[in-house]
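Suppose a colleague, Dr. K., hands you the sequence of a protein chain of 186 amino acids and asks what its three-dimensional shape might be. Before reaching for any lab equipment, you can write down a predicted structure in token form. Begin with the sequence itself:
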Amino acid sequence: MQNPLPLLRSYTTDWLEERDFVSSVAEFLQNQPNFWQKSTLEGHLTGSAWMITPDAQWVLLLHHRKLNCWLQPGWHVDSTDASMAETAQREAREECGIPDLNWISEDIFDVDVHEIPAKGTEPAHFHFDLRFLFSIEKDTPILHNTLETKGFSWVLIADLCTPDTPTSLRRMAQKTQNLHTGANRF
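The predicted structure, expressed as tokens, is then:
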């Protein structure tokens, strides 16, 4: 796995909370040579896919079995992944059964750090999550992985831009709206 520190250093954000996350991930990458391995007790780098429709009105979310909440597809790095963008793409394919995903950009779309609670013999740890942006048609057949997810749902981006939405999802939804209404449409 290629260290994504150069990619992270080229990423900028206007979101104050996310700036703290970027700093935390950069520090983790500088100090942890096994940054991507699940065996790293502090935590590990993960990759996620924010999959939106071409009109940027809908996003595909999965109901995560272990965490019992709605999230974007993603998570753990495999030894065959050359980059974090590949991790995000592979995870989306595995969790959704989608053979082809269209990149909107291979640049980082969002950065998040969140704690994963202890479960069984696995201690609590952090996911240092790099998120990437993909486009997918809403009529694409989805075959969710029932071992990891309870189901999936297409959610209106506008419905995620409310105070009741978890901060991480709300931030990505607001970024999607900002990108779509700006000069650089996808």
